[in-house]
Amino acid sequence: MTDAPALTQPSRPGHSGAAAPSAGGGGHSATRPRRPRLYALDGMRLIAALTVVSFHWTAYVGIPGVWPGKTPREVLPTLNHIASYGWLGVELFFVISGFVICMSCWGKRPGDFFVSRVIRLYPAYWTGVALTTVVLLTATEYARSGAADGLDASRVLANLTMLQEPFGVHHVDGVYWTLWAEMKFYLLFSVVVVRGLTYRRVVAFCGIWAVAGALSVPAQIPLLTTLAMPDQAPFFIAGIAMFLMYRFGPNLLLWGIVGFSWMLALSRINSIKVLYESVLGYPLSWNVIAGVMTLAIALVLAAALGWFNWASWKWLTIAGALTYPVYLIHQEIGWTIIHFAQTKGLGVRGALAVALVIVLATAWLIHRLVERPLSGALKKGLDRSMLTLRQVSDEPERTRS
């Protein structure tokens, strides 16, 4: 949900294209032409974001103080039933993230990887935290009951670091939990980035992570479970393997990694769906969840194999750019708008429409007025910092003493 680099085939330093290894990671090489931008992934991001929005707005309706009177379940029963599975958009985000992160840092230095993640994650996130805090504190009568409780400076500052979860501090907005999952993925993948990304190392990383995730379930060691992320790891790993297919071409090894990840993902359904059933108050279908998870993996796989190259509409880049801001502000702020709109007599449908328009417009403003200028300024400053770090680190010890 956070990644939007140029979705084009990268080239290795010193080459016009990528060297295509054999299935074992070495062997012959061939020149590959630069691939077209993967516009389809931008569209998938927005679809994933909107499915999560639909879940929080029309399925997750037991929110104190948000839905007075009739709820979407009463007025829009069909939409409510479908939206009950909208949380699965997060799994699609994770698959895309595995693909895009591997692509965006291939051939890059560790410092470049660090800079790219900071400028992509933090400008919009800081804005989302600030806007949500202001809305919850100034529109308390329309916000979810209890949303502003304990919302003091220390909690906000902890959230601004994006490390509130490991510190045991409540999120300003509950959707931020996925950002901690992304951060852990970056931390794990940075180990390979520091060593230098190669086909062999990335494949080994996928295998080791998959095994660690499987072992963390029976081991019940909190630190191992936290890092291995058994519920999320299969989606990230599948995305990474799909990028290797995209860059080097599919082979039996990569198909095996994707298939193994798919089986691991489905094996974790029961533990995941219990959490959402407790929120919704009614059972969910294992078959539907399995089907949607399979579809999420299949969509990104189809993009990796070039099946969506025909989808080259420029507006999809805007859709991709809006995804992260939409995700950051849609829950608490969206609920507040919905409640306010209902008090003005708009009804369920009108409240949902108004909330969607405001959230999309605000997301566009965040992208144009915050993300683009602030990311550029941050990149310049951090690039200079990385240059200084490399220069000083490369100096002989005697010249610094």
Features:
mainly alpha, globular, single chain, 401 residues, 17 helices
Describe the structure in your own words.
The chain is an all-alpha fold. Helices cover 69% and strands 0% of the residues. It has 17 helices and no strands. The protein has helices at 39-59, 72-75, 77-83, 89-104, 110-138, 153-161, 177-195, 199-219, 222-228, 233-248, 252-267, 269-280, 286-304, 315-329, 332-343, 347-394, 397-400. Helix 1 runs parallel beside helix 14 (315-329) and helix 8 (199-219) packs antiparallel against helix 10 (233-248). The model is unreliable at 8-31 (pLDDT under 50).
Provide a quick synopsis of the model.
With 401 residues, the chain is mostly helical. It has helices at residues 39-59, 72-75, 77-83, 89-104, 110-138, 153-161, 177-195, 199-219, 222-228, 233-248, 252-267, 269-280, 286-304, 315-329, 332-343, 347-394, 397-400. The longest helix is centred in the last third of the chain and has 48 residues, at 347-394.
Secondary structure: elements and pairs:
Blueprint: H1 39-59, H2 72-75, H3 77-83, H4 89-104, H5 110-138, H6 153-161, H7 177-195, H8 199-219, H9 222-228, H10 233-248, H11 252-267, H12 269-280, H13 286-304, H14 315-329, H15 332-343, H16 347-394, H17 397-400
